[in-house]
Amino acid sequence: MTSDRILKDWDDTNSLLWGQMPIQIAHNLDKSELFSRDALAALIEAYPREHYNLIQTASRESRRVWREGEVGNLSGHQIIDAIGAGTLWLNLRKVTDVDPRYRAKVNELFDEIRSHVPNFGHPEHTAGILISSPRAQVYYHSDLPGQGLIQLVGTKRVYVYPSKPPFVAPHHLEDIALFGVEVDMPYADWYDRHATIYDLAPGQMLHWPLNAPHRVENLDAVNISMTISYTDEEIRRLQMVNFTNGLLRHKFGYQARSRSTTGPSFFAKRLLQRTLRNSSWIRRERDSRQSVDFKLDGARLGAIIDIPKAAIAS
Ligand SMILES: [Fe+2]
Fold it and tell me: How far is the CA of 165 from the centre of ligand 1 (A)?
């Protein structure tokens, strides 16, 4: 095994535990020039508007805040400084589509995972870069694709919960598939007694079982992380089932019992999903849950300026 591999000191038990339990893996991506501050500042400046989300959250002691905004006309370095001073969270989604250098690196990582995990296959995969404030947090949620979190700068505390009820139930996944919003899941403090908790430092990566709920608290300076996300045929079929079961429940009051990803009930759902996924009802419901209402303040780094609704519409 050569030393230029991304995954270092692979523990063979990880090959057995992959997807079954949360596991922590060592990597060397934090040493890559692609994740230096200068490289990321340049990346942010060129980033297409439709591929990033800027979120304001509350610090840990405060009541919940979840607003979406835009970076305004700040430079890349100023944006990172603003994140350093605020409680913000910038998600450069699909960096693997936006910049081929990151695509090449993430492909390399997936090749290595495949070499260690016999049944991993060749899922479609993507990655995003998260830049977040020292005291920012990401609330309790599940993701529909397979997921891993790679820590590059700063330290964060990651709570990973069991991927089963009551922590995550089918109707939670259905709502995510239908409305595209992950952070509306119910959460109670006592869930933490059943979480696996990691203080994730640069050079460490986490992988957890499909749909396992998680939440994140940043512990110190600006945090830079990369999320990897993958979808194979089974995950894709589960997403269709979640979408259609959610639609049947919300729109027609019908509680579907089957979560099968094969057979006639699945193929009927796939047809319904293809017919309705872009319907006006779905678009309206999603729009009502996602709106941009602030931009970063260039004069006071870390502060935000409200954008009036009329300006957003224009
Ligand atoms: Fe997540």
Answer: 18
Q: How far is the CA of 1 from the centre of ligand 1 (A)?
A: 31
| pTM, entire model | 0.85
CA of 263 to the centre of ligand 1 (A): 30
Cα(227) to centroid(ligand 1), Å: 8
Residues 187 and 218 in one domain: yes
Residue 194 lies inside a defined structural domain of this protein: yes
How far apart (Å, rounded) are the C-alpha atoms in residues 273 and 65? 32
Q: Same domain, yes or no, for 188 and 223?
A: yes
Residue 148 forms part of a structural domain:
yes
User: 264 CA distance to ligand 1 centroid (A)?
Assistant: 32
Q: How far is the CA of 114 from the centre of ligand 1 (A)?
A: 22
What residue numbers bound the domain in which 270 lies? Answer: 233-286
Are 237 and 221 found together in one domain? no
Distance (Å) from CA 299 to ligand 1 centroid:
32
In 3D, which of 293, 300, 298, 301 has the Cα closest to residue 70?
293
Radius of gyration of the chain (CA): 20
Query: Angle at Cα 76 formed by Cα 73 and Cα 77, nearest 5°?
Result: 120
Cis peptide before 166 (omega within 30 of 0): yes
Q: Ligand 1 centre from 55 Cα, in Å?
A: 14
Q: Ligand 1 centroid to 126 CA: how many Å?
A: 14
Task: Kindly give the confidence (pLDDT) of every residue in the chain, 314 residues in length, as a single tens digit, with 9 standing for 90 and above.
Answer: 445 799 988 999 999 999 999 999 999 999 999 999 999 999 999 999 999 999 988 777 677 787 889 998 999 999 999 999 999 999 999 999 999 999 999 999 999 999 999 889 999 999 999 999 998 888 899 999 999 999 999 999 999 999 999 999 988 898 888 877 665 789 999 999 999 999 999 999 999 999 999 999 999 889 999 999 999 888 888 888 787 887 778 777 777 777 778 777 777 777 777 777 777 776 777 666 667 888 998 888 888 888 876 555 43
